[in-house]
């Protein structure tokens, strides 16, 4: 583990760090995340939409940052919430989101709650990873894996039994399934996904090729290898 000493990891627990992490996530998603870059969502729009949500989540103490020790720069972040809290205000009748990826992900979350998960959703049962990114110059150095392992560990410490995530990247799919023991459940293929909330039959990711996007569930309790 050659990179362990190079990076420090900590909970995002203050506004200054939250702002820097939001900037990082907005820029990396806008440039490198599959659906966001395909739809050409500007980093500034993402930043404006994400900052209030990330500020609201500080009290949950489930989100982590990675700092590059030699430079002091924050180079990675993963944001998580209690799925119950995230989902409790969701309404299937709400208007379409500004960007379709949000509605696609909400549809997958609904499939998880109503089809994949055989329990009633309660507070402090399922932690939900909203998004995460590593600065492009620091990828491939275990930062993303360690951040996600820390979120899972912190969720376990807080009493959560599961972590749910949806992934659009082969690297995160590998991390969650091969390194953290997650199981794939329902999937949505963006290339055939119809933006139902928009109501015009549009298929905004028709040309956005790549793997289908799965719900991945990680069981945190000791019988996780059943
Ligand atoms: C995806 C991302 C988070 C990965 O972060 P990272 O810090 O490079 O992750 P790590 O170095 O810990 O691990 C990457 C792992 O994925 C593997 N990997 C990389 N590319 C892969 C691919 N195309 N297919 C399968 N596995 C792949 C690596 O081999 C490594 O696994 P290993 O440790 O077993 O060798 C980062 O590239 C990123 O932020 N991308 C832009 C935003 C984004 O797409 N976020 C995720 C949305 S779901």
Automatic annotation (TrEMBL):
The lineage of its organism: Eukaryota, Metazoa, Spiralia, Gnathifera, Rotifera. This is N-acetyltransferase domain-containing protein. It comes from Rotaria sordida.
């Amino acid at each position: 583990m050659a990179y362990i000493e190079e990076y420090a990891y900590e909970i995002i627990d203050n506004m200054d760090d939250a702002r820097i992490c939001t900037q990082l996530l907005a820029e990396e998603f806008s440039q490198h995340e599959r659906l966001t870059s395909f739809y050409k969502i500007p980093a500034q729009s993402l930043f404006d939409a994400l900052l209030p949500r990330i500020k609201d989540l500080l009290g949950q103490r489930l989100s982590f940052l990675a700092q590059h020790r030699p430079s002091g720069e924050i180079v990675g972040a993963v944001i998580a919430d209690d799925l119950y809290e995230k989902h409790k205000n969701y309404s299937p009748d709400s208007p379409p989101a500004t960007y379709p990826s949000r509605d696609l992900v909400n549809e997958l979350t609904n499939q998880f709650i109503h089809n994949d998960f055989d329990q009633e959703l309660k507070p402090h049962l399922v932690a939900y990873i909203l998004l995460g990114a590593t600065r492009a110059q620091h990828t491939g150095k275990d930062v993303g894996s360690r951040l996600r392992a820390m979120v899972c560990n912190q969720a376990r410490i807080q009493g959560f039994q599961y972590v749910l995530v949806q992934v659009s990247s082969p690297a995160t799919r590998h991390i969650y399934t091969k390194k953290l023991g997650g199981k794939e459940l329902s999937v949505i293929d963006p290339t055939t996904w119809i933006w139902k909330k928009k109501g015009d039959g549009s298929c905004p990711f028709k040309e956005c090729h790549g793997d289908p996007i799965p719900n991945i569930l990680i069981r945190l309790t000791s019988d996780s290898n059943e």
